[in-house]
Amino acid sequence: MNRATLLSRESFVELTARARAQALLDPGTFRELAGPFDGLTSPWLARQGVVPQGDDGVVVAKGRIDGQPAVVMAIEGAFQGGSLGEVGGAKISGALELAADDNRNGVPTRAVILFETGGVRLQEANLGLASIAEIHAGIVDLRRYQPVIGVIAGQVGCFGGMSIAAALCSALVVTREARLGLNGPAVIEQEAGIGEYDSRDRPFIWGLTGGEQRFATGLADRFVDDDTAEVRNVVADLVAQPPTPTPAADGPRSEQYVHYQQCIAAYVAGDAAHQPDPAMVRRYLGERK
């Protein structure tokens, strides 16, 4: 890639959540719902000495993508690590429910979720977990009618219960800078020790949970450069696809649980005593041809 090409690109990773949502929607169609001036702040953060944010770190916008009705939900990783609590989670689950209702009423609304999150907000504990469970249900409901596309760009990645939400999407788009895992590196190191997982070893972490590895092992569907135009084009292509069949061998990953159970069983029987490396993961999960 030459220098001129690099300089002409606009980084998607460096955009705020609101700017990412605007970049995906057709020009002039962005309309934010439950925005910062509606005052939907978390009632719990101030009690613990944390300054709340007007939109609770979640941007929900309706508009169009290539002329088709769409809703984009973007999580702001710069606010509380993109963690989800009662308000932010309700904004996403509510948007998914309304999109499903649109489809039942003859309006083919698609959905895009921009993940940039460490999962549940610790200050809100069970309330956040309940919200994330509602997001899971909303994705499964909506994807029967229209594609639900997930995007993980960076810099926070996607972890915790929201990694399950990403896995439930009809299709998942990742960049090289993305990371996807059920538990974050610091959590694994804290619970299992630095010998199991060194959270400061960046090559090791990206080698196991980075976007390129997740794409290679089939846990993500599209691998894109950090370029706003490219991300937008890939998302536009995916939301134009028909709903993903379910159940089917080529359907959502959540319907392929037998395959993943077999992968885990093979690993436990063969190499569970050894720390996995990227090559081992590709061997057990299978590598994209």
Automatic annotation (TrEMBL):
Residues 1-254 form the CoA carboxyltransferase N-terminal domain. Pfam families: Carboxyl_trans (PF01039). It comes from the Bacteria. Coiled coil: none annotated. Keywords: Transferase. It comes from Cupriavidus agavae. The keyword Transit peptide does not apply. InterPro entries: AcCoA_carboxyl_beta, ClpP/crotonase-like_dom_sf, COA_CT_N, Malonate_beta. This is Malonate decarboxylase beta subunit. The keyword DNA-binding does not apply. The lineage of its organism: Bacteria, Pseudomonadati, Pseudomonadota, Betaproteobacteria, Burkholderiales. GO terms for molecular function: acetyl-CoA carboxylase activity; carboxy-lyase activity; transferase activity.
